[in-house]
Amino acid sequence: MKKQLLILPSLFFLFFLIIFFYLLIIDRNPSELPSTLLDKNVPKFETESLLKDEKFISSKEFGNEILLVNFFATWCKPCRDEHIYIKRFSNEKEIKVIGINYKDNPKKAIQWLKELGNPYTDVAVDKSGRIAIDWGVYGIPETFIVNSKGIIKYRHVGPVTKKIYKKINLIINESE
Amino acid sequence: MVPSLGNFALWLSLCFAILQFIISHKRISHFRSKLNSVAVNGLLLCVLISFFSLMYSYIVSDFSVMNVFQNSHTTKPLMYKVSAVWGNHEGSMLLWMLVLTIFNYFIFKLYNQTNSIFISKALETQAFIIIGFLLFTLLTSNPFERILPAQPNGLGFNPILQDPALAIHPPLLYIGYVGFSAAFSLSIATLSLRNNEKIPWYIYMKPFVIASWTFLTIGIAFGSVWAYYELGWGGWWFWDPVENASFMPWLLGTALLHSLIIVEKKKSLQSWVLLLSILAFLLSVVGTFLVRSGILTSVHTFALDPSRGIYILAFTALLGGYSLILFGLKSKKYIKNNYFSFFSKEGSILVNNILMVIVCATVFLGTIYPLLIEAFTNNKISVGEPYYNSTVVPIMIPAILVMGIGPMLSWGREDKSKIFKKIFPSILLTIIITVFIFLFYQSYNLIGIVGIILAFWIISNNFIILFQKIPNRSSGMIIAHLGIGLLILGITGSSVWQEEKIARMKINSEIKIKKYNIVFKEINEIRGPNYVALKGNFLVYDEKKTIITKLKPENRFYPITNNFTTEASIHTNLLRDLYIVLGEGNINDGWVVRIYYNPLVIWIWIGALTIFLGGIVSMTSNLEKLRRLSI
Amino acid sequence: MLTKDFILTKIFIIIVTICLTQFFSKNCFAVEPDEILQDQKQELRARNISKNIRCMICQNQSIDESNAPLARDLRILIRNKIKEGNNNEEIYIFLTDRYGDFILLKPPFKLSTLALWFLPFIFFIVGIFIVFWHNKKSKKILKDI
Questions:
Q1: Per-residue pLDDT tens over the stretch B68-125
Q2: Which residues pair with residue A143 across a beta bridge?
Q3: Chain C residues close to B337, C-beta within 8 Å
Q4: pLDDT of residue B8
Q5: Which of B300, B547, B598, C94 is placed for a possible disulfide with B242 were both Cys, Cβ 3.0 to 4.6 Å?
Q6: pLDDT grade, residue A92 (50/70/90)?
């Protein structure tokens, strides 16, 4: 064994140490997945609307102004918890929010919105969950920022917290 | 009162650890022995008091202790109150401390006049490790934190974790990979030796390495037993980062174990042993880091924050940096230019070493590659079972082939002509058995054939060694190797020839799997100590229409944690497991029923137990030998 | 250590866990009888593809084994795509377009994963070299003796 080779283990060790240290320092969530749809167009879909008589057509709703898309369901507790922030987006910040009701009972959803307040300009009904799959949704609630050109710019998995609320507002303000 | 005692004892143990660390620098040998004795014994006693204080708090359900509140409940059966002590992050750190201080005690037992400086250095290293983990525990993960006012009851605990195999899994596992700390400390002491000192360091290392490796084997096995029986789809290994974190020290431990034999006999491979001892424990510590730092998530990880991770990483950096640089600088003198041929006992062990290290490196690569990708690109990937099946399994094949021949070869060099004569009986036996099996079972599958051949290659070789009645043959080795053969048999059978039937069954309907007829007799609601359940009753008939067994799978609901679990019902015999799981359903549509036919599964557990027994036999004969040499 | 953040974090974890258990309250169990395709070959293809797709919710399982509703939806989607005539490649692309490479249990062959797939092979070659080099050196020592 050449003597220089003996120092190799410590060099490999140093390499991995740096990687681990870097990963600890940066702000990352190990269980959250980056969306593959970032900087891509909103998936096209057509489905029933929860609140209106006519159909929900994605090409009509997206591509006009910057807005939020919020996947929710009545059976999901964190959705209930974050609802106050969704309302604040709509009421206080006057941001248009579109809801997508995931694998839910439409009657229950209407009741839920009556009880908690409705921040959505419209709600698309995703009974089968297929729309969610097209958006790469895996853990509701999930919230997306879609810009005025219909491009997805940001996704958050899980309920909106104070920190995320601030972050979303920041991103929206910056793009205007 | 008791929790305060536990906390106090833990802080006191820090003092003893610091004392032990400082003593080694003193040149006064007379005092050193007494001071070391005080430090080592004081450490052990304090940690024992601390550990059992926590256990007491769990047993009496003292919910003023935050840790007990978070992880226990009055309705928990006693056994699981006890195992809850180490079933959480803070409590498991106490288990770390316990094993560290117990091994510390045994290192001190080796102390005598001639090796005082050497053992003191080992104790100093061990003390450093203990201090590192103690500080981590005391400052960031103290299990004795109080919650006031005391709560009336706890937050319960995940019911999937209330299982005997899982209860015993951590203590056994920790004796394993925490135990490698002793080999680590002895390695550091060896590298720090001055040239004039003649210490048989490898003789000191051996009992610790055998003990750690043996318990690591059975610890890992119990984890798999639990997964198979509890999780409900017949799997027992998932290449999860936490599982890999225990497998890597095992691989290096295997290489280390075998290399020690060579060092003892022929003084070759010394630098291998020193490096492997360092790396095995280092991997244990890195594994701890991966699991507890929050850097990756898996079902096994403790939910923690990155600030704790930075502490563990810093400690790992110090430990690893110091040991590997020391190795880089000082191991030169342990490289002996000893000759041995490829066809020799040493040669086969060298091949085994290299293959174990390659497998370990591959598992390490697969485990951290997602992290590397994340650091360099913004992408996330998975490295799952298919990767390890394509990489690790092929590398294991030559390792197993060599494992068969190795014990039969002579030291130094084997006459190539003699080799064939030695292995011919086992080749013949393997071929005969394999042909017989496939004539009988007629289920041809390439991987299956390879697996069966490898399994019986090992089994035949070891039976032949048994019958040769050569004196001084290590029976521990034969038993352990036999265990590996049985393990391969079990793994092959259950992976390759598993069959599954899924159906929706109404009451009194029937389903056929292999040669069995299974009738769904009835379904009942039952009540357990902390759950309610739906229990199905299935009668299993063989082709002669006789009842083999009744299978009773359950779907349980634990109201306290709002959890659902499925309890599979399993009938085992030497040839196969019949494994049935009850799904959802109702009286009108029937229930979803999943039935598995898992061949040879029990040989996995028998194999692991046999390896464990082999290790125990090795340990006892090794300790006998040491006693005779009056060390 | 009993800071507000700490308590909130713990409560959040409990809430998420409970929400996940609501997910499982239907207690479906992995592949269900009504999902199974008539055509055995197609069903086998579906099972093999599913075994390679990670369940995004219970992340230590493939969708073939998992209870989660999303796993079931994906299993059905895969079977539909097979019936529609898509080949395996197309199905994998469909899934990775939406969920990224993370959803594949077998890491893809890309520039970024070259090291992952080739290093074990390189380790093996290096290992063989070491054995041969050692053997050669040993023979030389023997000749010198």
A1: 998 888 888 899 999 999 988 999 999 999 999 999 999 999 888 888 889 999 999 9
A2: A70, A156
A3: 137, 141
A4: 96
A5: B300
A6: confident
Query: What one-character-per-residue DSSP string does A50-105 give?
Result: SSSSSPEEHHHHSSSS-EEEEEE-TT-HHHHHHHHHHHHHHHTS--EEEEEEES--
Q: Which residues of A touch B275 (CB under 8 A)?
A: 9
| Distance separating alpha carbons of residues C21 and B566, to the nearest angstrom | 13
Q: Would the CA dihedral through B551, B552, B555, B560 be positive or negative?
A: negative
**Residue in C with minimal Cα distance to A34:** C100
Min Cα–Cα distance to chain B from C14, Å: 9
State how far residue A72 is from chain B, nearest Cα, in angstroms.
Answer: 22
Contact A23 B379 (CB under 8 A): no
Residue B541: beta bridge partners?
B517, B547
CA distance B567 to chain C (A): 12
Q: ipTM score of the complex?
A: 0.87
Shortest distance, CA A7 to any CA of chain B (angstroms) = 4
- Closest Cβ–Cβ partner in A128, A134, A139 for C57: A139
B586 touches chain C (CB under 8 A): no
Tokens of B363: 């598992």
Confidence of residue B142 (pLDDT cuts 50, 70, 90): very high
Q: CA-based angle B138:B140:B141, to the nearest 5?
A: 70
CA distance B498 to A160: 45
**∠ CA(B297), CA(B301), CA(B307), 5° rounding?**
80
Over residues B542-559, the pLDDT tens digits come to 888 888 899 999 988 888
pLDDT digits (tens, 9 = 90+) for A108-153: 999 999 999 999 999 999 999 999 999 999 988 999 999 999 999 9
Question: Which residues of chain C neighbour B70 with C-beta distances below 8 Å?
Answer: 10
- Amino acid (1-letter code) at residue A12: F
Whether B287 has a pLDDT exceeding 50, the answer reads yes
Question: Which residues of chain C make contact with B380, given a CB cutoff of 8 A?
Answer: 100-102
Domains of chain A: 37-175 (3.40.30.10)
For residues C9 and C13, give the distance between their C-alpha atoms in angstroms, rounded to a whole number.
Answer: 6
What is the model's pTM? Answer: 0.91
Q: Do A138 and C18 touch (CB under 8 A)?
A: no
Number of CB pairs < 8 Å for A and C?
48
Selected for mutation to probe chain C from B158, B160, B302, B382 (highest C CB count within 10 Å) is B382
Q: Who contacts B113 (Cβ-Cβ below 8 Å, separation ≥6)?
A: none
Torsion of CA B323, B328, B334, B336, to 10 degrees: 150
Question: At residue B358, does pLDDT exceed 60?
Answer: yes
Nearest CB among C123, C127, C138 relative to B341 is that of C138
Identify whether the C-beta of residue B159 lies closer than 8 Å to the C-beta of residue B74: no
Contact C124 B358 (CB under 8 A): yes
Size of interface A-B (CB pairs under 8 A): 66
CB atoms < 10 A from the CB of B412, how many?
18
Distance, in Å, from the CA atom of B504 to the CA atom of B586, rounded to the nearest integer, reads 10
Average pLDDT over residues B403-423: 82
List chain B residues with CB under 8 Å of C120. 358, 361-362, 365, 391-392, 395
> How is chain C classified by DSSP, letter by letter?
---HHHHHHHHHHHHHHHHHHHHGGG---SS-GGG--SSHHHHHHHHHHHHTBB-SSSTTSBTTT---HHHHHHHHHHHHHHHTT--HHHHHHHHHHHH-GGGBSS---SSTTHHHHHHHHHHHHHHHHHHHHHHHHHHHHHHH-
Planar angle of CA B223, B225, B227, nearest 5 degrees? 70
Tokens of B463: 């039976």
